[in-house]
Amino acid sequence: MTGELLVAICLAAIASGTSILLPALGEALTERSGVQNLGVEGMMLMGALFGYIVDIETENIWLAFAAAVVAATSLALVHAFLAVTLRANQIVSGLAVTLFGSGLTAFIGKPFVGAQAPVTLSRILIPGLSQIPVLGTILFTQDPVVYMSFILVPVLWYFIYRTRPGLNLRAIGESPATADAMGVGVASRRYLYTLVGGALAGVGGAYLSLGYTSTWVEGMTAGRGWIAVGLVVFGTWDPIRVMTGAYLFGFVDGFQLRAQGLGSTVPSFFLNMLPYLFTVVVVSLSSGERLQRRLGIPRALGLPYWREERT
Amino acid sequence: MALSIRLERRANLPLAQRILVLSTAVILGALASGVLVQATGYSALKAFGAIVDGSFGGAYPISQTLAAAIPLATIALGTAVAFRVQLWNIGGEGQFYIGAFAATGVELIGGPAGWPAVLLLPTMLLAGFVGGAAWALLPAWLRAWHGVSEIITTLMLNYVAILWVNYLVYGPWKDPAGHNFPNSPRFPESATFARMGDGQLHTGLFVPIVAAVVLLFVLARTRWGYELRVVGENPEAARYAGIDVRRTMLTAMLVSGGMAGVAGVVQIAGIIHLLNGQLSSNYGYTAIIIAWLAQLHPVAVLVVAVLFGALVNGGFAVSQEGIPQALGAVLQGMILFFVLGIGDVFTRYRLRIFSPAAAAHGRSVP
Fold first, then answer.
1. How close is the nearest chain B Cα to the Cα of A110, in Å?
2. Count of other CB atoms within 10 angstroms of residue B166
């Protein structure tokens, strides 16, 4: 009985964790390039709503995810323009993206509230592997987006640490002036990685409205975009550690949902607090400027780059 | 022909020009929202008509707009203090709820005991300040002593605060005579601000006004205000000057949280006269935009808060025309984009558009 329960919680953990993992991986890339985008929450909402609308209109889940990517990336483009080209304050610009994204999705999504998405992600059992007891059930009876995230994590790790473009990415986040002198275009790459961050946030958002649930609710991300930003800090900009954080979060979330389902005597309000308190705790444990420096905070994070003023 | 945009830094713009640039940004933001509204199939003209009419078209709408501006201004005054030392307190929303919670706690004791308004209201305001400040204490301490990003912690605690208030109004503090609605019992008159005129405007209006005057004085004339300025400009220099940077950060954050808490008290004692889980329509987030647009200046905060009070109010007005209320939020976000893109850039930089060919000869294209 408890074994089955644990498997159920782990399944929920991966589903819930994936909606955070993808945006967090994207934000890790964006921040590695030296741009901080606090607009993840807003971009996720764009992905969730536009994926959902296109799903209703076309009944094609792949078009829906493509729309989610386009919608979220267009907001990321606004942030990139403000932060990279105009050198506006990145923190405020990111907040603006979130505020605008939640406002716009609430505005456009009003007529759609409560409807059911016709086509949602379905689980695919991987032949053979899914037969493995416990672990096979947890890892290999998932939907395509989860499998994609399984592949994405090692691929990103390899990209960041073992390839030339990955080295350039780290360079522009550490010391844009040096990278610039080496002939690595800072602005174009910062644009690129901000857009990639937006695209992954869009997929994460659409995963919420078309996979994790199958409906649109105003503000349905409920802080997941912010938690993703927090997990990037916890994961010290490393895909594998970010993944660990996302699944830990998913586990806490899955646990509290299960506990509510089983009629726990603790009021649901307190159980609902757990994921947020969890985030405060893990971000606090992994912060501290000295620790962050050692673990690899991009040194130029949040700082605009001026070729004219390089020192 | 390919053109490239270049920014050059410039010294501070004179006040009049700064106001001009920022107003232009606000107007362009509104126009861009209008285009968006039109594009989504609603009538922009009807929407803006409803907003203007619903916010400024007569004594009653003006009263509603001012009433909506009260909590916004109060939170934003505090947000501006934290922003001055580069602390990004986005926990205004949660601190607002905790302030309201603390004041309700006082009311539940003082109301039945028959405290007069002159005792009860100030005690509630004080409790609200302490509550809001306490809610900011953990993020402030983590930031100042351990370098933990206050952005994430303040934001996460927003959700916790709202859940806590919901727990109370669905549980122990639920009004037994409230037909099962999730709210506290109604406050007695001694726990409320008197109404002014026919609308919702109440004497709590003086709270942000007094606070702005006090802040203006404190920032310009006291040692703490000076320390805030130095730490905000350059923490390294502040340390060399013998300023306790951590303590300055902590106090700025506590004042910021405290003000948001006070705003929560003013809202429940002034408008709804009870505690529930829907006290705020994202006031804490709107306050961030207000503080930024006002360039962190207390008096400017008051003015900008009235404008945003009109947007909050305009949201209610457009929803009666069949246009989603979230239009108000769209306008807020769009205006902030334009303030960032145009306002900030033009006040700090000179924009030069170069054609590469001309630039090679050292000439700029006007």
1. 7
2. 19
